[in-house]
Structure formats: structure tokens, C-alpha cells
Design goal:
Elements: E1 4-14, E2 40-48, E3 53-58, H1 64-78, E4 82-86, H2 90-93, H3 95-98, E5 106-110, H4 121-132, H5 140-152
Parallel strand pairs: 1-4, 4-5
Antiparallel strand pairs: 1-2, 2-3
Helix pairs in contact: 4-5
GO molecular function: nucleic acid binding
InterPro entries: RNaseH-like_sf, RNaseH_sf, Tc1-like_DDE_dom, Transpos_IS630-like
Protein name: Transposase
């Protein structure tokens, strides 16, 4: 079977409500203005064996409908047989997604439980986290701009190294 392997995963990033730790000169009483916001964004990411990468951002939690539409967009993009590698997240196991397996040219492979090291998209999330760490974002717009910049600069892991 000649098919494209595509690995998919999800992550969530939030605007920090307050700094967790900071360095200040001894004896000072610094004040930090906080917005009180608890905004966040979710991302679905996919990478292929050829190094293609796709990301979609949502302002709500990822649902089975989001995952379904993301997978259908990948099918449309490639117009060929796909082997989709997923983790055991509930939205990937929902019937809205699993029913897609009835389509010609689409097969699902579910990774074993508690094995994020087997999903190459996790490396993308690690790089994203490194890019965003030690930064305070005042707003969701500021966070999403930083995410977009970081996603553009990711080095895509080689999918074949994971199988």
C-alpha cells in the first residue's frame, strides 16, 4: 500500500494570569499589573513523513468535530491514501472520527497509551514550549502572535525515526 503517513496531536497554551517566579533586587517590593484574563488557545498539529506540517488553532477545547474536520482537510490536501497516527485522546476515539475509517484510502493507527515519545508532533510541541517559556503574555493576541512566529521556525522531526 502506497500511502502518506501523517501524525496528529493536540496542545493547549494559555495566557499566564500571573508570573510564577521572578527575580527582583533584595529589599524591593515590585508590583506587577495583572490583566485577570484566563484566555487560552488549543492547537491541532500534523506532520508527514515528507516534512509537511499543518497547524490549526481553536479558541475552545478540541472536540471530535474539530478533529474530524482537520482530518478531512488533510485528506483533501493530499488526495491520496493516508495512514493517520493518533493518540488515545477521547476526541480521536469518538465516532465522528472513527467513522471516517470507512472512507476509501484512510486508515487509523492508534498509539499505545501513555507513549507521547512515539508521536513526532510532541517534538514540535516541545520546541513551541521552549520558544514560549520564560515569557509573560498580556493578552491572547500577544500569545497567538508568538505561537505563529514559533510555528514558522520549528524544525520538523523526521517521522521515520519514530517507527
Amino acid at each position: 500500500m502506497d500511502a502518506t503517513i501523517v501524525c496528529i496531536d493536540q496542545t493547549k497554551k494559555s495566557v499566564q494570569v500571573e508570573p510564577r517566579a521572578a527575580w527582583f533586587p533584595r529589599g524591593t517590593r515590585p508590583s506587577v499589573e495583572l490583566s485577570g484574563q484566563r484566555d487560552w488557545t488549543c492547537l491541532l498539529g500534523a506532520i508527514t513523513e515528507d516534512g509537511d506540517r499543518f497547524f490549526s488553532r481553536f479558541t475552545e477545547y478540541v472536540t471530535a468535530e474539530h478533529a474530524k474536520h482537520f482530518i478531512l482537510a488533510l485528506c483533501k490536501e493530499f488526495e491520496e491514501d493516508l495512514i493517520v497516527v493518533l493518540d488515545g485522546a477521547p476526541y480521536f476515539q469518538a465516532s465522528a472520527v472513527t467513522d471516517l475509517a470507512d472512507r476509501d484510502g484512510l486508515a487509523f493507527v492508534t498509539l499505545p497509551s501513555y507513549s507521547p515519545e512515539l508521536n513526532p508532533v510532541e517534538e514540535c510541541w516541545r520546541q513551541l514550549q521552549a520558544s514560549l517559556s520564560n515569557r509573560f503574555f498580556d493578552s491572547l493576541d500577544e500569545l497567538t502572535t508568538a505561537i505563529d512566529t514559533a510555528l514558522d521556525q520549528l524544525s520538523t522531526p523526521k517521522v521515520s525515526n519514530y517507527f
